[in-house]
Amino acid sequence: MTDSTNDPSADVPQPIDTDFEIGQHNVTPFGFDIHNPVFGISSIAIIVFVIATLMLQGPATEFFSWLRDFLTSSFDWFFLSAANVFVLFSLFLVLSPMGKIRLGGKEARPDYGYLGWFAMLFAAGMGIGLMFFGVSEPMSHFASSMGGTTVEAGARTDWAPLGAAVGDTIAARDLGMAATIFHWGLHPWSIYAIVALSLAFFTFNNGLPLTLRSAFYPLLGERVWGWPGHVIDTLAVFSTLFGLATSLGFGTEQALAGFNFLFGWGTGNIAKVVLISVITALATISVIRGLDGGVKILSEINIGLALLLLLFVIVVGPTAIIFDTIVSGGIAYAREIIPLSNPFGRDDTNFMQGWTAFYWAWWISWSPFVGMFIARVSRGRTVREFLTCVILIPMLASVVWMGAFGGAAVSQVMADAAAPVIGVAQELKLFVMLEQLPFASITSLLGIVLVLVFFVTSSDSGSLVIDTITAGGKIDAPVPQRVFWCIFEGVVAATLLLVGGSSALTALQAMAVSTGFPFTIVLLAMCVSLYIGMRRYVKAMT
User: For every residue of 442-484, which 3-state class applies, written as one string?
Assistant: First the structure.
């Protein structure tokens, strides 16, 4: 097809010439509509995992701890290098003629306005994480930076980022904010954006099923419908499920800590199982209602409550200090992003492996879930608009959020070296920080509600994504399938929390890292495939 304007934005969808039909390999037992063999392999493997870890709790706990440390210490350079590739590739696409391609073709228009779109991608992408780490991470990096560097047997043993900032509170605060924003800024959202763009492009512009294997058609051709594609989609299910279970575990720990802090509720295993069961039930209701009737409404509620809590902290808290922290933290992030991104020759190995390598593996394990969800709600955007909004808007929101909550907490420590927020566990820091502000009971309860609603949003949107993958790309599979995966997510999260015991979060992190590692290789290949596919598409349009 020839376009006299030579403008890829004037394109129309160009279906890839394939005989494959969506649902071609599906079977329909018990009223389900499932892809064979992706559904069977995924569900059976997860059931075996749950049973084995419950039966072998002691060895499983030791294994999880070893696995997390091994992967983050041995492959830290790989995770950091891959994340840098995703950022640079995103920038290349924005600046190239490919940026003018409209997802869905020239006549496509967005299904959702900016507010609803931002709300859904932000709630799915990082909701629970921002609640859990919004106070604890800036404080952790601030404290380690203030402590300076320590060396034993020729190697650093401290956890400070880069060269630390011993004795300088402002420099330590800014370095801590730079390190925090680094983990929640350009790199994670570039990971999400590449996966989402690949899925949206090959689905809306090439007529392929909305599933991970479709993004590899330029590399694999018709083989993508065979075992190579089955492997890709199965890995995506594992990665999504365990990445999601990690976030649900963080949310459970924080919500229970908040309830215990306010009302004296217990935080034992029974409480964990009860809370996960209740939230899974609510998520199931949302899943049954569908994307518009459930996920979209909850996402918009999330954004409203989050903005309310954010504005409260900024207005009632140390307003001037918070704004200074936001601005100086953002500047420090821009200044330090290259040193923080460097995968080689660094001596701050604890920070690079224990923080950054874990984060990148976690974001990558989340990427099939967040990417597919963003793809489903992004039809009608140009590639340039899509990448710019998906990467920059959430990054700026993270800068403001971390600057407000982290800045408020750090200011309490700078004013009082014995501030209560110092000595409490990670999951309690948000509530202890809020306790020092007016209306603490109300804002802490609001914080718990936010965690729970983010919990529900992540669970139901994750169920929709996994269901789409295991249904061979169908987005209208029977409701019982969505319910099945929603319950499965809760079971896996509960299992990892129960098996982990006092090291529950380590168990959750280990599974996120272990699934993120192989999927990093998949995403790097996806970049190559996306480039080939978009280059061919632009050539066909001009």
Answer: HHHHHHHHHHHHHHHHHHHHHHHHHHHHHCCCCCCCCHHHHHH
Name the residue with tokens 């996966």. Answer: 195
Helices (H) and strands (E) counted in the chain, each on its own, are 18, 4
The secondary structure of residue 34, as a DSSP letter, is E
- Tokens at residue 117, please? 């779109």
How far is residue 130's CA from residue 272's CA, in Å, rounded to a whole number? Answer: 21
Q: What is the pLDDT of residues 501-531, one digit of tens each?
A: 545 556 667 777 888 888 899 999 999 999 9
Q: Rounded to whole angstroms, how far apart are CA atoms 385 and 151? A: 47
Q: Which two tokens stand for residue 267?
A: 């935080």
Given a cut of 50, is residue 6 above it in pLDDT? no
Helix (H, G, I), strand (E, B) or coil at 152: strand
Residues 6+ apart with CB under 8 A from 318: 407, 408, 411
Residue 12, CA distances (Å) to 15, 195, 206, 540 in order: 10, 22, 10, 10
β-pairing verdict for 34-35 and 26-27: antiparallel
d(CA 490, CA 469): 19
Residue 223 to residue 239: CA distance in whole angstroms: 22
Angle between helix 319-341 and helix 76-95 axes, rounded to 10 deg:
100
Q: Which of 492, 368, 490 is nearest to 49 (CA)?
A: 492
Q: How far apart are the first and last CA of the chain?
A: 8
* 219: helix, strand or coil: helix
List pLDDT tens digits, range 55-109.
Answer: 877 787 778 778 888 888 899 999 999 999 999 999 999 999 999 999 998 888 8
Q: Is 345 helix (H, G, I), strand (E, B) or coil?
A: coil
Residue type at 41? I
Closest-CA residue to 243 (of 481, 95, 6, 462): 462
Rounded-to-integer distance, Cα 379 and Cα 119, Å: 16
Q: What is the per-residue pLDDT for 474?
A: 83
- Tens of pLDDT, residue by residue over 340-394, are 999 999 999 999 999 999 899 888 988 888 888 888 888 999 999 999 999 998 8
Residue among 18, 23, 324 at smallest CA distance from 173: 324
The phi, psi pair for 153, rounded to 5°, reads: 55, 35
Percentage of the chain modeled with pLDDT above 70: 91
Of the candidates 142, 74, 159, 128, which has an alpha carbon nearest to the alpha carbon of residue 354?
Answer: 159
Average the pLDDT over 388-417 and give the result: 92
**Nearest to residue 173, comparing CAs of 411, 399, 429?**
411
| Closest listed residue to residue 93, CA positions, set 485, 448, 537 | 537
Which residue in the block uniquely carries the two structure tokens 């994307």?
291
Beta-sheet pairing, 34-35 with 151-152: unpaired
Cβ atoms of 116 and 299 closer than 8 Å: yes
Phi then psi dihedrals of residue 151, to 5 deg: -125, 130
Instruction: Determine contact, residues 390/398, Cβ cutoff 8 Å.
Output: no
User: Any idea what DSSP says for residue 5?
Assistant: T
Q: CA angle, 355 as apex, 351 and 359 as ends, to 5°?
A: 150
pTM beyond cutoff 0.85 = yes
